[in-house]
Fold this sequence. Notes:
Layout: E1 3-7, H1 9-19, H2 34-43, E2 48-52, H3 62-71, E3 76-80, H4 84-93, E4 97-100, H5 120-133, E5 136-141, H6 145-153, E6 158-162, H7 164-168, H8 173-191, E7 195-199, H9 207-210, E8 216-221, H10 223-232, H11 234-245
Helix pairs in contact: 2-3, 4-5, 10-11
Amino acid sequence: MILLGVNIDHCATLRQARYRQAPATAGGAIEPDPVTLAVLCEQAGADGITVHLREDRRHIQDRDVWRLRETIATRLNLEMACTPAMTELALKLKPDSVCLVPESREEITTEGGLDVVANRDRVRAVVDAMNAAGIKTSLFIDPEEAQIDLAKKISAPWVELHTGAYANAPLGAARAKEFQRLRLGCVRAHELGLTVNAGHGINYVNIAEVRTLPHLHELNIGHSIMSRALFTGITEAVRELKARMNP
Ligand code: PXP
């Protein structure tokens, strides 16, 4: 069974669109609350909750991650940049896992994953710190052999293969080529003993193909679920995607 990590960042995006300047609670009037949403996602079948605490705090706030840590019953996956400040925060917060993602242009590969090859020492420092603290690290990388091999070399236990180039490719030869890259990436990572996750741009349609990738452990999905939830409610949105992942 493929596990589902629900990325709830866009719930916070919606809240911040109106309440960026408001005090933390504003008399209890602030909606939508990402922590309440996370609990509903779990009740609907999510296997974990993912949030990206960005350096610019554009959606998820520090208070959210601490409330999530105290509240959710599944696993908390913290997406973060490879910086000393975020490392310090993660070591205090103790999420179940961290996923290292690029935030500045220099850290990004051609397709948009974290360029582990170009940032080897910085990434390694975070992986070492997390391994020592018993927190699993996942590297959000393109399905490229050099990135995958280096993830293994620097002792990251997990990778999350970036599915964005696949999801954005026009249907036909271009999409098939990206799917093949992902397939080979999954095989390579699995051969090396890495746990294989994937994410970005996965939706209710392309899941039919994405779910056939070999060795998938977990998919991290955000935008499509939040968008569907506007029409069906979050419970149905999570249930339906989970059913499509594991028909
Ligand atoms: N995985 C990672 C590492 C991400 O940063 C994101 C959010 O961009 C996702 C998965 C989820 O992507 P989406 O919102 O397109 O489903």
